[in-house]
Amino acid sequence: MRPIRAGVPQGSTLSPLLYSAYVNDIPRPSTGVQLALFADDIALYLRSNCIRNILPRLQRAIDELTQWLRLWRIDVNPEKSASIYFDYSPKKLQFPVPIDTPHLRMLNQPIPWQHNYKYLGITIDKHLHFRDHIARVRKLALFYLSRLNGMIGRKSKMSLRNKRTIYTMCIRPVMTYASPVFAHARPDLLYDLQIVQNNFCRRAADAPWYVKNSVLHRDLELPTISKFMKDASERFFDIANSHPNPLLVSAVSYEPPPPQHFCRRPRNVLIDPPDELTAEVEKLIEVNKMAIE
Fold it and tell me: How far is CA 285 from CA 92, 163, 203, 213, 231, in A?
């Protein structure tokens, strides 16, 4: 037995009660800054045409939040906080913000400006290209694929059905977690994830080099990564439009930019045509249906 001076044990029955009493009723900023709360992760964000208009209002919101945290004796670590300025400019800048931009401060400590930040499992970059996130989850998926090779590889005696189940439960979720957020990324970036799935299909089926990826996807009854993400996005937007959380409803209530526009948003994936591999797989499936009929 030992006294607990901060926090509660993970999974404790007191956690929901203390969360409701201490965190869930956190006051909203009075400066028009939006506050997003998920468990103990707090995000303050504001939209404006100029970063100079954002900083004073964000700083005031941070000060109000800090005052409330002190009142309830909740410790916060400013070193784990980060500032990120989202800019749709197609130019790749060396610095995350203009050089003379001051830092936001919390508890008299500067909050550094960063090019990217991992928030709720998603690596968000300042241009919202999601290049860093896709590279990270691809590397992690390849690691799991290599560790599970004994069960799903060419020499495994496991059935194709079980190999497919292991892949869809252990490897694909690593790549497609929160996919409605980044499914609109550049096709060449998303194809890096498709290569991982192609690798699995060829290993699992012990297929020679001349068997097409579309045939493997059809035989394994496995949708392509882009098809899977598009279906997930359609389900997400259908649910989000009528969700009770007003932040979520406002986040999805917009018209996607035209296809030729340099700025793409998550809704764009709903109107995108299928990629080449997806079209081939769908064509093979239709041919099979016609042959059966």
Answer: 42, 21, 22, 13, 17
pLDDT, tens only, 30-70 = 888 999 888 778 899 998 888 888 999 999 999 999 999 88
CA distance 8 to 15: 7
Contact 159, 188 (CB under 8 A): no
Question: With contact defined as beta carbons under 8 Å apart, do 198 and 224 qualify?
Answer: no
Helix H or strand E segment including 8:
none
Instruction: Answer yes or no: are the C-beta atoms of 243 and 249 closer than 8 Å.
Output: yes
In a 10 Å sphere around its CB, with 0-12 CB exposed, 13-18 middle and 19+ buried, how is residue 61 labelled?
buried
- Residue 101, pLDDT > 90, answer no
Would you list the DSSP string of 154-219? TT--S-HHHHHHHIIIIIHHHHHTTHHHHTTS-HHHHHHHHHHHHHHHHHHHT--TTS-HHHHHHH
* Average confidence score pLDDT of the chain: 90
pLDDT, mean of residues 238-263: 88
Bridge partner residues of 119 (DSSP): 122
Dig out the tokens for 220 from the structure: 């394994």
If you average pLDDT over residues 178-202, what whole number do you get? Answer: 96
**CA-to-CA distance for 30 and 199, rounded, in angstroms?**
52
Q: Are 59 and 104 in contact (CB under 8 A)?
A: yes
Q: Is the pLDDT of residue 239 over 90?
A: yes
C-alpha count within 13 angstroms, C-beta hemisphere, residue 69: 15
Could you identify the residue written with the tokens 């292991």? Answer: 166
Enumerate the domain spans of the chain. Answer: 17-119, 129-292
